[in-house]
Amino acid sequence: MALGDCWKSLSWFYYQYILVTALYMLEPWERTVFNSLLISVAGMAVYTGYVFMPQHIMAILHYFEVVQ
Amino acid sequence: MTESSANKLLNGDACHRTSNGKRSSKNGFVKNHCVFQQPQKYRRPREKNQNVTRNSSLYKKPFSESFEETPLLVAVLTYMGYGILTVFGYLRDFLRYWSIEKCNVAQEKEEQKDFVPLYQDFENFYTRNLYMRIRDNWNRPICSVPGAKMDLVERASHDYNWTFEDTGRVVKDVINMGSYNYLGFAENTGACTDAAIEVTTKYGPGVGSTRCEMGNLDIHEELEQLVTRFLGVESSLAFGMGFATNSMNIPALTGKGCLILSDELNHASLVLGARLSGSPIRVFKHNNMISLEKLLRDAISHGQPRTHRPWKKILIVVEGIYSMEGSIVRLPEVIALKKRYKAYLYLDEAHSIGALGPNGKGVVDYFGLDPKDVDIMMGTFTKSFGAAGGYIGGKKELIDYLRRHSHSALYATSMSPPVIQQIITSMKIIMGEDGTTLGADRLRQLSENTTYFRRRLCEMGFIIYGNDDSPVVPLMLYMPAKIGAFGREMLKRNIGTVVVGFPATPIIESRARFCLSAAHTREMLDTALDAANEVGDLLQLKYSRREQPRPSLGWMSEENLFD
């Protein structure tokens, strides 16, 4: 079933992420701390992009004189 | 020694000293007479090995080593992993300091806190924060003979490896890929054990004295004569401990006015012995004959550091097989250099005796050289003979001198009789003197196992270091989490491996080290290889970027075509 395969594949990717960032060696609470920091930083980046992207795009188009 | 004779190179050419005392290696004259010329060509950057065979006429058979370079992405990710671990290490140390978390390391008492600290916090940072987390991969208790298969005591830890408890269960028939059991003599049945039991009933296990006082038994003499015959030297001396052989005998051989040239990756016992001797030590790049020659030439042309007197003697210290790299020393070239520059050679055959060579007589036998060319042949009985101890072989005058002046010969307790008998029996088996072909069979089995195992691992795509003929197979892991993961996953599949990290290896080059044995059958190797394949896929360890299959053409490989 597709959901089971999807879960297995996600679980494999999570395992690779844990190995590469050496979180495999850390205790569960340390992993939580690191993951929450990472997600909050990524979330803030996405939110900033969402808020400022229209302004940036208008500025670029204005510079290239596509729009007044 | 007058100034003018010190300026002459030993081959009779005069060395002109420049007027402002600059190093004569900048003088074009000195370079032209090097035995091994630096070639002027572009080298492919993929292989880290800059030590390609230049003087191919000295080698009777192809010498193929490979040390594939670390892929850049893997190196960056490894550093990142260590960075994250370091940050969390600081965090945990902070919590321990402010007593938010229980501290399990040694600490001083409250009353002593105002004095000079006894325990420096930072020194053990690595041990506390990185090693402890994956400590269950090391010091695993073995409860059977560490032969081709062994039984392990199962341990569990409830506080993340600070303390262990036995669960009461035993993991049975774990394939042993970690013991230095090259010829399979680590067994509790057979001719060696029966002879050892007989000798124990005759002499008892303890000796109760040093060799020079009352501890010299007749089997000690028998052992030394046997070792002399085995190696093809004039005389030999046996010690109770291999580490002590190196660290206690090098101080007896060199002193203040002598120079020691030691390989970059020499074992801790050789480094300790060299430091204890008090001689200046100069290090040459691993297995790099150009570096060694340059050091020799500089040493002879400049002499001692401030007085410029000639050195009393120059001792080159190398090992037969380097166990962390799996590389074999370039002995023909080292002997050519030694003869030309009149230096002495100390060869530590800890891993290569019994394991290399058509007759099992070590790296000298492997290259087909004369044992009389090596001044001091040292080795251990721990690896291929299934016992414990070390020996030194050489000229009669040297061994007589060592008997009187070596710390180990004078103060250390003599070897225990059953251990000696194990060595005697196993050595006779290897030489074929017991009447069976067991020795020859085992030697052949070991070299077949080595070739098969290395070829299969390289085909799978792992990065394997070292020479194609060495029974020590390091498999590169690089990332710190994979060190722990590899050890544990292999144990789950019933294979016991040794994983090594910093400080035994450079920080990013952590590895798993397989030690092959003549006791491993083809089925055991296949099981181990399948497990390694599975774990390699699971942990994504197949970093090798070589074209498959790797050409094993030795002489005809691309580097040599340019010569």
From TrEMBL, chain A:
Its main location: endoplasmic reticulum. It is a multi-pass membrane protein. Pathway: Sphingolipid metabolism; Lipid metabolism; sphingolipid metabolism. One of its GO terms (molecular function) is serine C-palmitoyltransferase activity. The keyword Zinc does not apply. The keyword Lipid metabolism applies. It comes from the Eukaryota. Keywords: Endoplasmic reticulum, Lipid metabolism, Membrane, Sphingolipid metabolism, Transmembrane, Transmembrane helix. One of its GO terms (biological process) is ceramide biosynthetic process. It is found in: Endoplasmic reticulum membrane. The chain crosses the membrane at residues 12-27, 33-53. One of its GO terms (cellular component) is endoplasmic reticulum membrane. It holds the Pfam family SPT_ssu-like. PANTHER family: SERINE PALMITOYLTRANSFERASE SMALL SUBUNIT A. Belongs to the SPTSS family. SPTSSA subfamily. This is Serine palmitoyltransferase small subunit A. The lineage of its organism: Eukaryota, Metazoa, Chordata, Craniata, Vertebrata.
From TrEMBL, chain B:
Residues 172-531 form the Aminotransferase class I/classII large domain. It is found in: Endoplasmic reticulum membrane. This is serine C-palmitoyltransferase. Its EC number is 2.3.1.50. Pfam families: Aminotran_1_2. It comes from Pagothenia borchgrevinki. Residues 1-27 are annotated as: Disordered. It is a single-pass membrane protein. One of its GO terms (cellular component) is endoplasmic reticulum membrane.
